[in-house]
Amino acid sequence: MSRNSKIALIVVGSLVVVCLGVCAIGYLLLPRFAESIVSTTPGGAGGVGDEIADYTVPTGYTEQMGMNLFIYQMVVLAPESRADDSMLFMLMGTRTPGVSRAQMEQQMRQSFQQQFNRSGGGMRVVGEEHFTIRGEDTVFTIAESENSPRMRQAIGTFQGKNGLVVVMIMGDATGWDDALMREFLSSIH
Question: Which of 23, 48, 85, 153 can pair with 175 through a Cys bridge, CB separation 3.0 to 4.6 Å?
Answer without folding.
Answer: 85
